[in-house]
Amino acid sequence: MKNNKKNQFHVGGARSADSRPQNYAREMSFVYGDQTWGRAFKDITKDFFLGEQAINSATNYIQESLDILKITPKRLCGMTVLDIGTGRQALKFHYLGAKEILHFDISRSHVEQTQAYCREHKIKNITSVQGDLTKDKLPTKKFDLVFAAGIYQHLNPAPLGLINFAQSLKVGGQMYMGFYRSGDWRWFIVSLIREAIAREDFAAAKRKIAISSALGDGEHFQVARVLDDFFVPAQSLFHPKDILQDLKTCGLDKYYLENDLRDYCHEGKGYHTVGGDRVYAVKKTHHSYESLLNKNFATARSIDQLRDIDYKESWIKENIDRWLGLVDLYHHGFIDRDTWLDILVNIYRFARPWNAERDDYYNRGINIGRHKTLNEFLVKVAENFPK
Question: For labelling, which of 21, 94, 96, 135 has a CA lying 20 to 30 Å from the CA of 342?
Fold first, then answer.
């Protein structure tokens, strides 16, 4: 991996020179809460965001995590849980018997809907709070379990969230944290797209995705997941070695992590091409929030999939160059916006198709090589525009 040392610096420095947009919290709430998952689960349940089907959708990965951490139903009944996210997981923890749950989310709509559900169903052991994990300090040494699924990559700067998680855990407390894994084919493709898409493209892209997917509904679950990948304002990619290093800095030891520490792998028949994107940890030592702000954190910066990884294969290097050439043509006005969005929606199908069994791009990539297939596509696209 290139530039490894460059990715390590003080969180305090990152905070004072924060490059995220000033409207980060508002944009996160808009994209993640109002326009993607909030609406998507309303569509799925035909009820509202926290209907029975939406809550039960969290069952498998919660139970898998409890099994890995050896948390039995009896143990869970005595545990205080911090859940970060939409509210579905917090409700599932309630139904599984957790003693007390704090639900924390940046989206006001998620919090309001969770609070409304709790009032309607007379649930007393869930407190739902809106806040920004990089700014609002959690209670100190309060929780037996921190559950952070699909959150870390959206924090900016991410280590401030990890510091918050760590200081909120009791010594001996456990944590599950999922993250977006650098070196995976899906995130390589998403990185290509995010290289040249803007917030003002949201409405037009939403229409394109709905039409391309043949779903005919801009509020569908499938549309929501694409909009999330395209437009969520903060999306960082991490190597598990860096995650483990930062956990140790915060006084946490690895409990379990899939043993896949490769820098990258873009080929294979699976949906994900490289593993190690979920970590389970236990807190061994307590460090104060303030003392951790002066530490070095490897995950203070995202790993750029186009520039930071030392790719060995010529196909990958050629495809990056070809793509950046098309981006340059778009920025110089040789490709119109409507055509460009069509290209972006089509290239997404290489990583996450609407129907994996019937998608030619996806299946050809698996059968003859993902980068070879991508190269064919990029060459064909480039033929329509000036050299």
Answer: 21
Q: What is the pLDDT of residues 281-327, one digit of tens each?
A: 999 999 999 999 999 999 999 999 999 999 999 999 999 999 999 99
User: Averaged over 320-340, what is the pLDDT?
Assistant: 96
Token representation of residue 300: 């203070």
Considering the domain boundaries, does residue 305 fall inside one?
Answer: no
Give one DSSP letter per residue of 85-149, joined into a string: SSSHHHHHHHHHT-SEEEEEES-HHHHHHHHHHHHHTT--SEEEEE--TTTSPPPTT-EEEEEES
65/168 Cα distance (integer angstroms): 19
Residues 276, 170 share a domain: yes
Cα 186 to Cα 371: distance, rounded to the nearest angstrom: 12
Report, as an integer, the average pLDDT of 337-353. Answer: 91
98 with 122, same domain: the answer is yes
272-305 in b/e form (b: 16+ CB < 10 A) is bbbbbbbbbbbbeebbeeeebbebebbbbbbbbb
Q: What average pLDDT does range 207-217 have in this prediction?
A: 68
Look at the chain and report how many structural domains it folds into.
2
Question: Is residue 43 a part of any domain in this protein?
Answer: yes
Choosing from 278, 300, 322, the residue where a domain stops is 300
Residue type (1 letter), 312: K
Q: Do residue 213 and residue 329 come from a single domain?
A: yes
Structural domain including 15 reads 5-183+237-300
